[in-house]
Amino acid sequence: MNVIENGDNTTSVILDESFDFESHKAFRDMIKSIITKRPEHLIIDFGKVEYIDSSALGMLMLARQEASTIDCKMKLVNVEDGHTLNVLKLVKFDTLFDIETKA
Predict the structure, then answer these.
(1) Nearest 5 degrees, angle CA 69-CA 71-CA 76?
(2) What is the pLDDT of residues 53-86, one digit of tens each?
(3) Residue 52, burial from CB neighbour count under 10 angstroms (0-12, 13-18, 19+)
(4) Sign of CA dihedral 91, 94, 96, 100
(5) How far is CA 86 from the centre of its chain?
């Protein structure tokens, strides 16, 4: 995972190919660090993601909760129009998050 801080008070998290339980500690620590900087927008970039599991869903909810404490708007971008998007829709995350699919 990589973090990119944009000049417009937006922070992007570029996820790795697998967004799963193995990512939990790094993702949690990264989100907590980002939130201390109080960005207005938090972008979670799924451009490289090929696999997600149920723990990824929990991590997204954690990030959403942390972002809401500082009125930070969160968006999921570059979500594959396939398995990943189907999983997010199955658990109704499309009603909780602004989701943008890959072009």
Answers:
(1) 100
(2) 999 999 999 999 999 999 999 999 999 988 899 9
(3) buried
(4) positive
(5) 16
Residue ranges of the alpha helices (H) in the chain? 24-36, 54-68, 83-90
Residue pointed to by tokens 């149920």:
54
Question: For residues 92 and 43, what is the distance between their CA atoms, to the nearest angstrom?
Answer: 19
Spatial CA neighbour of 75 closest among 40, 51, 35: 40
CA–CA distance, 16 with 47 (Å, rounded to integer): 9
The pTM of the full predicted model, rounded to 2 decimals, is 0.93
